[in-house]
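tmp note - Ig-like domain-containing protein
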Amino acid sequence: MTSWASFVALFLGLTLAITEGNLFEGHSVGSPCRPGNPCKLAFISDNPVFLYCPHVYFSAHVSWQYLDPKWADQRPVTFLRVGSPSWPLLSHAKLRRLQLKSRLVAGNLYIRNPSIEDSGLYTCRAGDATIAYYAVDFQDAGHIHVSHASLGETTLGNATIELEGGVQAKLFTSWSPWQACDRCGHSGERKRVGFCYVQVTGEDEQKGNPLPCGMIRRYYPLLPQWGPELRVETCNVPCNTSHLLASDESNAVPLLVFTTYHPQRKATAYLRCPTSSIYSPVYWQEGPTSLTRLQLLQKNSSQSLDKATGGGILRVSFQNDSYSASYQCYVNGNLVGKFLIASPSAIPSPKELDHTYSVIEALVVGLSMFLVSLMFLSIIQSCRKKPGTTMV
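out:
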C-alpha cells in the first residue's frame, strides 16, 4: 500500500509540474535611463532584476555592454547580443561570470543572481545607437537589516558621518512602496525594501543629489558599511478586486515545482520558492497551516525564513530521521512550489519495489493474453457464421 501511495504521489507531482507561464521574476525599473539623462539605481544582491531596452522587440541587432567603474580609461564591453548567446568569447573572468548569470528576454537584460561585484554601468545598444543607460549599485543582501513592526523593532534611521576635507555624509534609507499583502482573507504580512543612500555636503553647500552608498564609497572609501533594509508588518485584507490588482505582476508566476526531500538526522533543508524575490509578496504553508515571519520568530522553531530574498527560502532543520511534512509556497498569491519531506521509513524498500514491478508486469501480461484470446475467439466466431467455410 505504501509503495502504491508513493507511486501515485510521484505521478501527481509530475502532472502538476507541467504548466505554462513566464519563468522570470524580478525587480524592474520603469523608464530606461538615457545617455543624456543618466540615472542611478540601487538593487539588492542575490535577487533577480530586469533592465529594459525600449523599442527593440523585433530588432536583431541588440547588444548589452558593461563597464566596471574601477576600470579606468576603458570602454564598455559587449557581453550579450541577440541571436548569439555565447558571443563574444570574453577573456575577462568577471565578464564571463556576468554573462553566465544573464540572458536576454525580448532584448531586455535579465540578471538571475547579481552580486555586489556586478555593480557598474549597463548600456543597451541597437546597432550603433545607444538605447538605454543604467548606473547600477547592487547592495549587499548579506548585510540587510530586517525589522518587524509587530515586534517593536526599529529601522536604521539616519546617520551623519564626518569625512576628510570638511565633507559631511548623511546616510539614510530610501524606501520603496509597500508591496501587496502576501495573502488575503487571513492574517498575513507585507514588506517594503529600503536602499542605502548618501547625501554629501561641503562646508556651505550641497554636493549634487543623493546617490546609492556603493557609488559614493568609490570616492570616499572611509564611508562606513551601511546595508539595505527590509521592513515587515502584519496585514489583513479581504479577497476583493483591489487586492488582486495590487498583487498582480506582469512577470507573474510560471510553473508549479514539485520536489521531494528525504531528511537525515541533524540536517537542514533549504526550500527555495520558485520565482520568488525580495521584491514580490511570498508566503509559505506547512500543510494547511500558514507560516509567517512573525510566528516563526516568536516561537523560535526549527523553521525560519531567510533575509536575503525576503522569505523566498524556508530553512527546515531535522532533529531526527522520522520527520514527514509537506510545504507550499505562493508568489503574488499563486501556488508555485510544493515540497514533500518524507522520512526514509516511508520510502519503499528495493524488495517492495521489485514486488510492485512484478505485480504490474503480471497484470500487463495477463491483460495482453486476455485481449489476444478475445481477438482469436472473435475470428473463430466470424468464420463459423460464413457458409461454406471449412475449418482445418
